[in-house]
Write a structure and sequence with these properties.
- Strands 4, 14, 15, 16, 17, 18, 19, 20 and 21 form a 9-stranded mixed sheet that branches.
- The longest helix is centred in the middle third of the chain and has 22 residues.
- With 447 residues, the protein is of the alpha/beta class.
- The chain is built from 14 helices and 21 strands.
- Helices cover 30% and strands 23% of the residues.
- The protein has 2 domains: 184 residues, Beta Barrel (Lyase, Ornithine Decarboxylase, Chain A, domain 1), CATH 2.40.37.10; 241 residues, Alanine racemase (TIM Barrel, Alpha-Beta Barrel), CATH 3.20.20.10.
- The site of ligand LLP has 23 residues, from α12 and α13.
- Ligand LLP binds next to α12 and α13.
């Protein structure tokens, strides 16, 4: 007999308290194993909206947006729409005074549909289609961030007079994140190289933009990657970018006034994951920019930053229903969603936790694997996590920290409809994006 069997309460403690990481701060445990999310009981939400479903804490999104504004009042904070491009979310962040980073005609269409101020929108992308560029010009998007010599020519030909543009630079900084979401080092597809021996380097790009009468070069942009927890990497990027701005003034005689340092600020998905130090980031950027600018007699540029995950990641949870439990050499808990609503474990080896909700269990916890419904053995949502040993079909599981790059990365693999997105505030839930139906799925297939 194991110690946990002798003393069942030993394995139970994880049910009795809510681990802090991942959940929005207002999340708490109610009676009988209930989870209270943004003031609403999760089992009630699941009964009303079905499973799987994404739930988003509106107040938490607003609070995080406001925290960025407070930490860096002198900067423009642009929400990276790719993290969660939903109309209501764009309205919330617009109301909190944020700008918006977009990267396609589709994202611009969503922004346009809610009247997101065009002046506060940036368009990104390593290759923008003519439709993307036309959508940006048609809505009067404030700034377009250019990423290749081809694009400079293409936009130069399409734009009316006075289109403001930034150049994306590869700062050659390895931010120490997963290779698939690392974008600041040489040898990946984004940005103009700083290396003089690179054929398409920053100097050629500056000269090419200055030769386009319809474009106005206002600044530089860089983005180190995503899920970056090292504040010193951003400090290094800030220093390096001011050096580049000063070099451009010297060589080309233009003083650029904007510096966009991108996003990528890490969030904790699980207890023990590193948290991004926003206050430290703000402090160190200010000092680094101040020092580099004054020592080069360069006017302080207007700073833009582009957090996506840090605004919505921890504000979201996904709720699944357990369909089957298979006990063998490992215990598999199979749920009604999977890699179609969360491909991040398969793509980046991302690690998640999950918690039984809506029922109190005294059973000792055991190690289990939460798997999805798709036809691949890599369809794993949370590996090696501890759940009550009596978990069974019909139970509900909640996964924290699913607000960013879940709805926006979801697919119809196995012709499974994508889950709804439900906003919750002060206990009141509202459907923001409805569940995809079979009619939706058949509508595009013309037979
Ligand atoms: N700015 C630019 C130019 C970007 O490309 C990105 C993200 C961001 C800002 C926002 O990064 P964030 O603060 O959200 O980390 N699908 C991946 C993440 C890809 C990020 C792409 N670009 C994931 O699920 O981890």
């Amino acid at each position: 007999m194991t110690l946990a069997e002798l003393l069942p309460s030993l394995g139970c403690e994880a049910s009795d308290r809510l681990e802090r990481a991942g959940w929005p701060p207002g999340t708490r445990l109610g009676a009988d194993g209930e989870l209270i999310f943004a003031g609403a009981a999760v089992s009630g939400l699941a009964a009303r909206f079905g499973t799987p479903a994404y739930f988003l804490d509106e107040a938490d999104v607003r609070r995080r947006a406001a925290a960025y504004r407070r930490a860096l009042p002198e900067a423009e904070v642009a929400f990276a729409g790719k993290a969660m491009c939903v109309r209501s979310v764009l309205r919330w962040v617009a109301e909190e005074g944020l700008s918006l980073d977009t990267c396609s005609a589709g994202e611009i269409a969503v922004a346009r549909s809610v009247g997101f101020p065009a002046e506060r929108i940036l368009l990104h992308g390593n290759v923008k289609t003519p439709e993307d560029l036309k959508a940006a010009l048609g809505y009067g998007v404030g700034r377009i961030v250019l990423d290749s010599l081809d694009e400079i020519e293409q936009l130069g030909a399409l734009a009316r007079e006075g289109q403001r543009v930034l150049l994306r630079v590869t700062p050659d900084i390895d931010a120490g994140t997963h290779a698939k979401i690392s974008t600041g080092a040489e040898g990946q597809k984004f940005g103009f190289s700083l290396r003089p021996d690179a054929a398409d380097n920053v100097d050629r790009a500056v000269a090419a933009v200055l030769a386009q009468p319809s474009l106005v070069l206002t600044g530089l942009h860089c983005h180190l990657g995503s899920q970056v927890s090292r504040v010193d990497k951003y400090e290094l990027a800030a220093r390096r970018m001011v050096q580049v701005l000063a070099g451009i003034r010297e060589k080309h005689g233009v003083t650029l006034t904007q510096l966009d340092l991108g996003g990528g600020h890490a969030v904790a998905y699980r207890p023990g994951d590193p948290e991004f130090d926003l206050a430290g980031y703000a402090r160190r950027l200010r000092v680094a920019l101040g020092y580099e600018c004054s020592s080069r007699a360069f006017p302080m540029p207007r700073l833009t930053i582009e957090p996506g995950r840090a605004i919505v990641g921890q504000a979201g949870i996904t709720v699944y229903r357990v369909g089957a439990v298979k006990r063998g050499s490992r215990t598999f808990v199979a749920v009604d969603g999977g890699m179609s609503d969360n491909p991040r474990p398969a793509l980046y080896g991302a690690k998640y936790t999950a918690r039984l909700v809506g029922r109190y269990s005294r059973a000792p916890h055991q190690e289990m694997v939460v798997v999805g419904r798709h036809c691949e053995s890599g369809d794993v949502l949370a590996d090696g996590i501890r759940l009550p040993g009596d978990i069974k079909a019909g139970d509900l599981l909640a996964v924290p920290c699913t607000g960013a790059y879940h709805h926006s990365l979801a697919s119809n693999y196995n012709v499974v409809g994508r889950p709804p997105v439900v906003g919750v505030r002060d206990g009141v839930a509202r459907l923001l994006v409805r569940r995809e139906t079979e009619d939706d799925l058949l509508a595009r297939d013309l037979g």
